[in-house]
Design a protein that fits this description.
This protein is of the alpha/beta class. The protein is built from twelve helices and eight strands. The protein folds into three domains: about 40 residues, no CATH class; about 200 residues, YhbY-like (Translation Initiation Factor IF3, 2-Layer Sandwich); about 90 residues, YhbY-like (Translation Initiation Factor IF3), CATH 3.30.110.60. InterPro entries: CAF1P_plant, RNA-binding_CRM, YhbY-like_sf.
């Protein structure tokens, strides 16, 4: 204690000289002197006074992730030269069908306010300029390079086709989504191909999945296809540094409201005939039992074969979501083709429609 007081003795003498403390009691005098010592320590400029000198806290530098995020914020809005309209799902939407309403205002863009230089219409963010199809095709071919030999294809298939492959992307009921395109290019940074596993509603039309993956959206090539497993090759001349700019959607937009899929009276039938068809379908044995997130690659062919002998077909979808049942009905209507006449208690009732001979006889 004496040693500490000796450090501040000059300052203490100058402070106490200006004060007349002779009339104070010794305890109070000691308190005043201690306060003077404490106050002098806060303003001391002595570099040899480490216990009482004020040390300022070092300024925290921004983390690399926050610094990168701030740099990206400065470059908004993002511009992308991709020639197609940005949608949440490419394989499970039909641009030709216009919605009759929206569940949220179209001004709420899923890309975030001011983050994209395209306007959100409620269903898509249209491209400003339509690119020439021949130029896009030439650019894709230049990236793909020379076709792979059979030995190279076998090597890639053996490397990426197994279930324990780390380069895998799962496609669920949303189909080929917009953010999935960015995931594919992220895998292509370090791998020549990516394994894609499809489940649920998209497996009804695997040709549509392949079209949006290789021809229309990514520029890659499907070199292997087995039931619901695809292998998408990036190309010989693929350069990760020149990958396209894909702005990410920050949330899943609410789907718009479309016209009713099932009408009260089916086209070509009366009300009584429609009611009789529905009852017949509910009392008939199920053609197939569909599971949740199953593989439906053979459903279309089975329904087509059943319509050769039956007029009404029932699909049992007890454990399938209601929204998925309606998506299945829409795809079967376009692929078989047929007429969905009832969705009830996890049951899909399909009517094959009137044949040409029946239409001629009724007319």
């Amino acid at each position: 204690m004496l040693k500490l007081l000796s450090w501040h003795s000059p300052i203490l003498q100058t402070r106490t000289q200006n004060l007349n403390l002779s009339h104070l009691a010794p305890p109070l005098l000691l308190l005043c002197s201690s306060l003077c010592i404490k106050h002098s320590s806060t303003i001391s400029d002595d570099i040899y006074d480490p216990p009482f000198s004020h040390t300022s806290k070092p300024s925290k530098s921004k983390s690399p992730i926050k610094a990168l995020a701030s740099e990206k914020e400065q470059n908004l809005p993002v511009h992308s030269d991709l020639p197609f309209d940005f949608r949440y799902s490419y394989s499970e939407t039909n641009p030709s069908i216009q919605p009759i309403g929206f569940r949220e205002p179209p001004r709420f863009s899923p890309f975030g306010p001011g983050r994209l230089d395209r306007k959100w219409t409620g269903t898509s963010a249209p491209a400003e300029q339509f690119a020439d199809a021949s130029e896009v095709f030439k650019e894709q071919n230049s990236v793909l390079g020379d076709p792979l030999t059979e030995e190279e294809i076998e090597e890639l298939v053996e490397r990426y086709r197994h279930n324990d492959c780390s380069r895998q992307i799962n496609i669920g009921k949303g189909g080929v989504t917009h953010n999935m395109l960015d995931d594919i290019h992220n895998h292509w940074k370090r791998a020549e191909a990516v394994r894609i596993k499809c489940l649920g509603v998209p497996t009804l039309d695997m040709d549509n999945i392949c079209f949006h993956l290789e021809v229309d959206k990514t520029g890659g090539k499907v070199i292997y296809r087995h039931i619901n497993i695809l292998l998408l090759y990036r190309g010989r001349n693929y350069d990760p540094k020149n990958r396209p700019v894909i702005p990410l959607m920050l949330w899943n937009p609410y789907p718009p409201i479309y016209p009713r899929l099932v009408k009260n009276v089916a086209d070509g039938l009366t009300f009584e005939e429609t009611k009789e068809m529905r009852n017949r379908g509910l009392n008939s044995p199920p053609l197939m039992k569909l599971t949740r997130n199953g593989v439906y690659v053979n459903v279309v062919q089975r329904v087509r074969e059943a319509f050769k002998t039956e007029e009404v077909v029932r699909l049992e979808c007890t454990y399938v979501d209601t929204s998925d049942c309606k998506k299945i009905g829409v795809k079967l209507r376009d692929l078989v083709p047929c007429v969905p006449i009832l969705f009830k208690d996890g049951q899909i009732i399909l009517w094959r429609g009137k044949k040409n001979g029946e239409q001629d006889s009724t007319s």
